[in-house]
Design a protein that fits this description.
The complex is a heterodimer of chains A (146) and B (153). Helix content of chain A is 6%, strand content 45%. Chain A is mostly beta strands and 146 residues long. Chain A has one domain. In chain A, the strands form two sheets. In chain A, strands 1-11-12-13-3-2-10 form a seven-stranded mixed beta sheet. Chain B has 153 residues and is mainly β. Chain B has two helices and eleven strands. Chain B has a six-stranded mixed beta sheet. In chain B, strand 10 and strand 11 form a beta hairpin. Chain B is globular. Chain B starts with 7 loop residues before the first strand and ends with a helix. The chains are: A mainly beta (146), B mainly beta (153). Chains A and B meet through strand 12 and strand 13 of A and strand 4 and strand 5 of B.
Amino acid sequence: MTDSGTYLRLEIAGANYLLPSTAGFTIEQRENLALNDSAAGNIAAWRPAKNGRWPAYGLGGDLRVDRRGAWQRAVFLDAAPHAVGIALNEAQLLPRLETSVARFTPMGPPPTRAGHLFSGAWLTDKGVVLVLEPKALIAYLQGLGE
Amino acid sequence: MPQPAPDRIHALELPLTSFSLLIPSASTAEVVNLPHLTAVPLGAPWLLGVMGWRTLAVPVISYELLMGARTHPAPSAASKAVIFFPLPGRKEWEFFGILAAAEPRPQTVVASLAIPVDAGELPDSPYVASGLRIEGKVLAIPDMAALRKAFYP
C-alpha cells in the first residue's frame, strides 16, 4: 500500500505538497522569468521558450489563484502544447527513504477533466502531505487560462 | 420448547450536531480522537480533510454538509472520527471517516423491539435510508448506496 518513490516537495504559500519525480519538470529561479507586471490575470510570470513562453501561475496554499504571495521560483511541468508552471517559495527533492507514500482517493467529483488532483498522501509525524497527480495538475493549470 | 433468541444487531449511535445516525458496528473499524485534518484543496465541501490512521490516509467527511447544511460547526474537544471499513466494491485501503460530535454509543437493536420511524420524522435527504426509534430517540440509518455514489461518482 505504500510507495517509496522520489518526490519533489513544493511549498506554495506556506502549504506543502509532493510532486512525483516521474513527472517531468523544470525549476526556474524568479530572476530568470519575465514577471507579469499587471495585477490582473492569473499568471505570475512567464519563462521564455523557443516556441513562445510558458506561464507560471500564482496560487495560494489552497491551490486557488492568488497572486498576492511572495515567491522565489517556479516549477514547470512538461505538458502539451507547452509546459505550465506554478510560482512557489521552495522546491526540494526529498531522499527516497524519507518518503513513504500511502495511496489516497479524494472523495466527491474530481475537479479536473483528468481526475482528482491528488493520488497519494505522505504520512508524517507532523500531519499529512498530499501528493499531486501530475496529469490532473496540468489539466487544472491549463484550465486557469490567462 | 425454548424460545428462539430475538434477532439483534450490535450497532453504534453516531451523534451528529442535530441528530444521530445508527450504524452497524461491523461496518466500523475504530473510533478515534479527531486529529488535525489536512484540507484537500478543490475537494467536495463536505470533505473536511484527510487524516493519518495507522498506515493509511483516511478522508473524513461531515455528514451534515453532505446532506446540504450550509455550515458546519468547528469540531470540539469532544469530537471523534468514526473510521469505517471500505464500502463494497472499493479498494481494501479506502477506509473513510465520519465526524461525530461526541463519543458514539453502543446500541443493541432488537428486531422485535425496534420501532420504525415515519419519513416525516427523519431529515429529508437521499443519504438517510430510514430510521428507528430506540429508547424514545429517533436514529437515522444512512443510505450506504447513496453514500457510495456521492463518495466515488
